[in-house]
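Intended use. Records like the one below are meant for learning the mapping from a protein sequence to its folded structure. Do not use them to infer anything beyond what is encoded.
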Amino acid sequence: LDAWGLLPTPEEVNAFVNDKSPKAHEKLVERLLASPRYGERQARRWLDLSRYADSDGYNTDGTRPNIWRYRDYVVNAFNADKPFDRFVKEQLAGDELWPDKTEALIATGFLRNLPDEINARDLNLKKQEVANDLTDTVSAVFLGTTLGCAQCHDHKTEKITQQEYYQFQAFFSNASWKDDVSPLSAKAKADHDAQLAKWEAATKDLREQRDALLKPTIDKLETDRLSGFVPATREAISKPASERNAYERWIYHRNHWTMQGRTRNAENQLKTKDKDAYAKYQALGEQLKKFDALKPKDPGAISTMAELGPDAPPTRVLFKGIYDRPLQEVQPGL
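Structure written out for the chain above:
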């Protein structure tokens, strides 16, 4: 039960009871630790700490199709007896320390596991919620203490100040997620991209015709979406890329990520509102299928955390933890 979370079979019980050798217990322990079930059992405990889920949570609760790789990373880490210091470093900074190692990128799923609401109207508030989640989770799991009370005030019973809370949070101010990182090695990715380029060249005209049919719907969906944001969010998204500062870059990136389903949404709208255009769209799709043999197999993707640029958004102490009541700026500090 400790090692596997499963009851032994009667046969296994009898085999142990009847084993009179002085190493009977040692052999049992080795057998339990050598089984893949050991990693599966221990991983469940760690996955709870990391707030792992296969969907976003909240109202929309969208699916996270790639996050299973993090689950398997944790299972494999226990079964491979990965050193704990390496286990920690990969999950907190795998993209920085080992950017060329797929396993280390997958490990940052620990940070990516944050609960989310894709339809958030105020992305400025969302950024603060993400920063708070990363701060509180990392402190609870790796420091063994809750810093969350200091988000709003100096801690009453421990020597943790509100300023120290935001100094710790500053480490995560430039962190955002990428759900489209290739799991392929450099050579395999080069081969995949070369084959994909052939498919794209052969299907360019068909894809452009399909895109043209969807464009009016997509444009309206994006206009409607933009109008639904609060003014401060709209301002950050609408700026030209060259004029965005580090903070606005985070807001823009967040909005760009939430538009990943726009083609699917536009297809659904076209289907119900313009049946003739949708019929043409479907016919072009059938023609596209004739080129499937030329298209490389989709290798899937990694959901990982990454920084968005060399400069980080400023971190400020917040009056009573209120996101739009900033006080003095602080620098990262332990």
